[in-house]
Amino acid sequence: MPGSGKRKAKRPSRPIEVRDLSNVDIPTVIDSFVNQINDARGWSHVVALLCRMFDLPDLNSRSGLRRVHSNFEQVQRKLDAAYNKYRANEKVTGGIVGIYSKMSRDAILRNKIINAGLMPKLLPLLDNPKTRLIGLQALSNVTHHGGSGIRREIALTCTPTLLRLMEEFPDNAAYNEQIIVTLAHAISPVVNDEDSTASAKAANIRKLNVPRVLELVFSNIRKPDASQCLLSHAIEFLCSVSENCHKEIKANPSALNLLVALLRSKDLLTRVDALGALCRLVFPESEEDWRFMDPNKLMDAIERGFPPHLSDALMDYSPTECDTFLIMFTKRDYIKAMMQVAQDKDLYGLGKKLAEFVTRTEFSISDGGYQAVDERTGRVKDLDTDGLPFKMWLDALPHCAKALRTTGTPADLDAADIIECKFYIMKSRAADAVRIAQAAIERSPQVAYFYYVVGLGTDQALGLRASKKGLKAKKTTPFVRHYLLWRAVDQAGQLGLAKLQTSHHDTAGWSEGIAFFTSALEDAKRFVAETPPDSRNMRIVLNWYILLTITMRGPGLSINLRELDNALKKLEITREFGKFYSIPDSKTQLRLVRDVIVQRYEQAEREWRDLIPRLDNNPHSSEDVQKRSALNAEDNLAAWLEGLSVEEHGERHCSHPSLNASPAELWHCSHCHNPSAMLRKCSGCGKTRYCDASCQKLHWSEHKIACKQAQAQAQS
Description:
The protein is mostly helical. The protein has helices at about 25-40, 45-55, 60-70, 70-85, 90-105, 105-115, 120, 130-145, 150-170, 175-190, 200-210, 210-220, 230-240, 245-250, 255-260, 270-280, 295-305, 310-315, 325-345, 345-360, 395-405, 410-425, 430-445, 450-455, 460-470, 480-500, 510-530, 540-555, 565-580, 590-610, 610-615, 620-630, 635-640, 660-665, 695-715, and strands spanning about 370-375, 380, 680, 690.
């Protein structure tokens, strides 16, 4: 009865050991089962008989595998004895290899089995028509669950044989599915080995004959009866080798088109994998973005005059607010201020001006000086600056900061920190600048420039948080806001791509990745709408906007991408501004990916429009189950090989994640909208989430009423 406190004593389980055959004549034992094995109608029956013969525990459970662990040498000795005795009996040898491959799902057992000589037993099965399928299934299983070392060995030793079988049996769906699964798992560790030199990788790519692998894989995925298993592993293979086999993929237009066509899948995970593969594909040929703007070339361009269409773009925005004119005006004001201080020696006044210049444009401070050319010698000489503690203009910044701090007012302390941060940035001492900015935020959390500085650090997540906080700060300027938007787009885009490629769709990492992408896309829209057309960061943000729109909307976009016409037109204007200012249009990774996608989008859809819907089909639909049954016509051994129960309940299955806006909202700070998995809940209402206490404090005035209402409702 419930609550009686009496429980029936649990009977201790009797330890199950592998049958001790040490004193038994092995041939006699095997002979007693051989007739039954020969009469068995399928591989699963053969394996069951062999397992019973050796009293093997249940290999579908952890407890069974643990018992094999404790008796592995004995199990291996008896299985090897049976294999050697009946080497000419296909059913015995095939069944024993099947047992070994089942055990190989356990990582420790797998290494023991491989070291004990599984491959010499397995490979001969591939050339025997009666054992070929069980051999391929076993090889697929070992590769699927093997470590990188085992996969490398299988790739380098088995690929020629597997390619030959695909050529000899092009219409055997069962063979080709298992081969493609094996190749998908085995080749990647070889071509992506980080410890190998570039020449060694190239040699392995030639040895593996990757171009031929691509041809045979693609001939199979085009077949209307290709199973979901074959399709998904073919895509996995293509995506996994895209960086180090970029030449081979680019030489195969269909492979390149397939990566682009995958961006029209209904499955967000598939689209993200395709985007990641394309990013890796172009990476070896990409360049760093050209971040330097030569003021002299800028002035020369302005003196030449703007082409009419560029002039129109500036006029539409407001010329005096465009970057070009802000840089030009600031340079003029900066020189004037430095000339003025040489006369009045007012470092405090200069500091106030410099702080305003720094938040007006990125190119506010130049490293000039009080110098002149000696007419007699032709050399540059320092001019007399009696009363000033500096000769080079950049060195004025710390002196001005010191003068500003003497007043002790919050505004002057902020100005002092701003120009000191700028000094360290120009001296390539970003860590010192970040340190000062972080301290300044404690005093003045509403000054956006300090978040701009913190975002210069190397940690992307911290940089994104700083950018999002800075966008909420009230004391800002157009330059600082636009810069923070650019950084927020770039950092969230990079973080989202990394998260989504390494997370399962039903995990916190997946939700966080969606939040990163959503945040990046929203900020990209704001940037494009607010920023002047001559912004040098416009190219980067437009590239992200195009790539994120294509990835997030998937098949919802038209085939000709007409929804992106305005963005592409703006991109062309931005490129022409860069050309006008003599700024190279660098072949950045984002630009190259965008070029590939936009140029091939329509033709890729035409070539692969029949495949993508099949790939999107539920992999556990009844139709696909029938296909699997047909592929494994001999019996259900494939299911047995794959069906390890780890004594956990619930089915293992793949599903197709889709974009859902509401879960993504859970991963944004309620104040600054920074996407993060490490948000703290409001202890009052339990609904809003924050990066930290500072965000919660800054949001309180806005959230206070709603929070108290939620608490009142909870108590009523």
